[in-house]
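chain below, 424 aa
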Amino acid sequence: MSMVSSSSSLPVFPQDAKPNSNFTRQIAAFHPSIWGDYFLSNDSSFHDQAGKFKESIVNDVGGMLSLYEASQLRFHGEEILEEAYSFTLIELTKSLTNKLSPFLSGLVHHSIGQALRKGMPRWWVKDLNVSTNFPFVRDRIVEACFWVVGVYYEPQYCLARSILIKVIAMTSIIDDVYDAYGTIDELEIFTNAIERWDISSLVDLPEYMKLCYKALLDIFEETEQELRMQGKEYFVKYSKNEMKRLIQAYLSESRWYHSNHTPTVEEYMEVATVTSTYAMLTTVSFLGMEDTTEEVLIWATSHPKIIEAASILCRLMDDIVGIEFEHERGHVVSSVDCYMKQYNSSRQNAIKELHKLVESAWKDINEECLNPTQVPMKFLMRVLNLARMMDVLYKEQDNYTNSGGVMKDYIKALLVNKVPRQIS
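prediction:
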């Protein structure tokens, strides 16, 4: 029997399983970010002792970009910033005639054409201030960056990475709102607000949800602005619809939890493959790719076999390694729990059988990659890479939630430590 239906509709809990509106709020004890402001700090100096701009900055295109963007904040009479603006504009324009990397060339082109100061307001992690405004969620922005680099490391996907990292970070917060903090009444209101997708819905939300809701809408609005330059802003509607489907699935799981309902494995997987987030994230991952067409997005949202397989793999691997922690903090039943109850099975046997489904999902992914007939391979690679990241991060434990172990080593190796010029 197929684990997932091709229908986009989601099952609801039985009518006699009424949510308990007197539920006492549970607060998960996630450990804070281990990175602090490591990746957010910058202490650069652009002047020499004589107060002139350093000649060496000409060779530092990244430094010139920072100075150019800073000069956009100048006032009347600010001669130093006027000088900085003229200097960096001239040198950055010259730099485009050199052999810059595609990534750096793209940044320079975009900055000269549309400086950050004069463009749409951008969503940054500091603006959201996760640790203060959402102390009950996982603060994992750095880990999310690592995840996105695993989806596409290639320089030409700079815009795609920028879009995906913001959606992943926001989705992680929303996931914890549904799993770890919100009452059922609050979650019903929030779900309805997402379905309306209208900033006027803010007035109906609890205070802690308002910032979350506005940030989500801002991210998608900014993405529309980015794609408008390519005449593709209407592409975003496909990702919005996938986000709405995800939120509805989150609510279904919350209803199960608040009514102490254990679904069948089939019922569970119908919802939980959606809450794995991989169908939504795959659609979002295509938005910033230059070759994306509407046909590709229609394919991605039609439940193709490879995305369904990646979603199954993601959900089961997450469930298997996270079951102990989820039981401790109070969480909706997992595929392990559902299998044990439905088949009167031991936990060990349930995990063994679910591992078989993970291997089966990998075989489906492999088959689809060998026969890329509906969309080009470059799009299938995003699905494959999302699946790969699950295997890297959820092989032995949930290294996203428990990010102090192997995840920390991976991030340091990729984003912190310098790569040696020679390998002896």
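The radius of gyration is 23 Å. Residues 5-9, 11-19, 40-44 have pLDDT under 50 and may be disordered.
thats it, cya
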